[in-house]
């Protein structure tokens, strides 16, 4: 059974998740000015990676880094 504890920021976003059953799966989250997730700090493993994200001017996620390696994002657009 998992025992998870969330801590919250003043803007009601999740600041951190603590897993008391498996502490190596705990993490902290970061957000940009628009309250989009900009970072996730796990323990740097494949199961709980460190992540960071970048967004374009309209809020599409356009870049990402997982444990130091770039990952690609695909933007889906509706046909005109």
Strand content: 35-45%
Question: Overall 3D geometry?
Answer: globular
Helix share, percent: under 10%
**DSSP strand count:** 7
Order of helices and strands: EEEEEEE
Rounded mean pLDDT score? 89
Low-confidence stretches: none
Strand order of the largest sheet: 1-2-3-4-5-6-7
Could you please describe the fold and organization of this structure?
The chain is an all-beta fold. It has one domain. It is built from no helices and seven strands. A seven-stranded antiparallel sheet has the order 1-2-3-4-5-6-7, with no helix packed on it. The mean pLDDT is 89.
Features:
mainly beta; 80 residues; single chain; 7 strands; seven-stranded antiparallel sheet
Record the SSE blueprint.
Elements: E1 4-8, E2 14-19, E3 27-31, E4 37-41, E5 51-55, E6 61-66, E7 69-71
Antiparallel strand pairs: 1-2, 2-3, 3-4, 4-5, 5-6, 6-7
Task: Briefly summarize what is shown.
The chain is an all-beta fold.
